[in-house]
Design goal:
The chain is 36% helix and 23% strand. The protein is built from 16 helices and 16 strands. Helix 1 packs antiparallel against helix 2 and helix 13 packs parallel to helix 14. It binds (3S,4R)-3-hydroxy-2-oxopiperidin-4-yl beta-D-xylopyranoside (XIL). The site of (3S,4R)-3-hydroxy-2-oxopiperidin-4-yl beta-D-xylopyranoside has 6 residues, from loops.
Amino acid sequence: MKVAAETAVGTSICAILAEDVFAMAVQHAFEADSSKASTHAAFGLDGLHGEAAKKKMFFGSATSEDRIISDIPYRTALVKECGIIVPEYEMKWDIMRPSATTYNFADADFMINFARQNGLAVRGHTLCWHRALPSWFASTVNSRNAAQFLTEHIATVCGRYKGRIHSWDVVNEAIEPTDRQTNGLRNSPWFQLLGESYIETAFRAAHQADPAAILVYNEYGVEFDDTIRTDAIVNLLRRLKARNVPLHALGVQGHIRAADKAKFAANMQRFRTFLREVATLGLSIIITELDCDDTGLASSITTRDEGVGGMYGDYCSVVMNEPAVIGIITWGLTDKYTALNSTNPRSDRLPQRPLPLDANMVRKNAWYALEYWFKNTMQRPRQTITSVAEERVAPIQRLRCIPNTQQSECEIQFTLERSEDVLLRLVDVRGQDVQILAQARFEAGEHRFMLNYAAFPIGTYLCILQSPSFLVSEKILLQK
Ligand code: XIL
């Protein structure tokens, strides 16, 4: 899919937020029934990333191109809640490498441009993994050319997105003690072809191509009492650090299960100790794929939301109290798109409810658990997302709203660089749609609308212009 160029001027939704919040709070002081909270609610400042950022942490989620394109309420929630996104599929080898000699950048480009246009940082996932390998891999890659394939892939991908990726999952899931290999390493294709050295090779190649990015070793299964596994992970990290390999963080995937509440509680202290050990190696920690499987819980929605939310709370009580943990990413934002329905369906066939928002983008217990912990955790020393807030990339679609109080009319103008399917709407301070102004395909060029607001209560509104590749907004103060 083609994406818009990124060289433009204008105001992104988030860029206006910081400067507006004060003005809007002042204005709402004069409006009897509008609280500051509802002002925030409409304009995204009370999304989870907004809370996380107050502690110099970040919050984000995995997402994908098709969902961003097709689902406007979802995309709106994504931009509102997240400061960072991670492509669930678009940067894996099976998508990026249609053949041994070619690259498909279109999908990853879309994700990165969407993120830049909406002021979101991006995680790169994943440069070296035993899964999601393309079908040509097994017959083409051998022990003589494997190092070359790995370094060339990393140099090409990291080189292309250099400076635009917050953190790379350089190596994913390299430990599996049950495979009975040296040092508890997984008997993956990369290990079979290159031995343990592939891990170091991958990190060095990534650092060379993208020196400013945070380089992450990403792993699962560290929350429970499997000390053979966690010891193998800590030892791997220790060996890499001892060899001065450019490694900056551990990614803890955080795929947990609500029915394991008691098991988790019994192992909390060990999980804390594991995180401390990692921190002591000088590494940061990112929770990279948090979700909470609800299989094993009764079918009632209340039971499941309380069970899942409780588990998020228990999990956060450990990870948020570890200062080395700098951010949390959930594996999806809404239950609508959780991978768990296909990877681990419930026996009653009901859709799982593992994520912070339900299928209608309504916040659930899990959302409130995260919010509580972001509010109550200690401030981290430094925000690692520099692209958010300070450095929002302005979109090319300029949106302007010019009210004429005499006539109770407001002229809305926007300029498109190319033909786009566009939704133009007006929302109130609670984020409710007041009016859909347009929903159609528009040609490149300037477009104008006249909104008559004589029948609307006076106050602040947000005009939102969205297309599959952008979302911009402008605050309007409608007075008479
Ligand atoms: C998963 C996707 O969510 C699924 O849709 C797909 O079928 C398999 O991959 N660890 C990871 C992620 O690092 O990339 C995986 O994502 C989940 C486990």
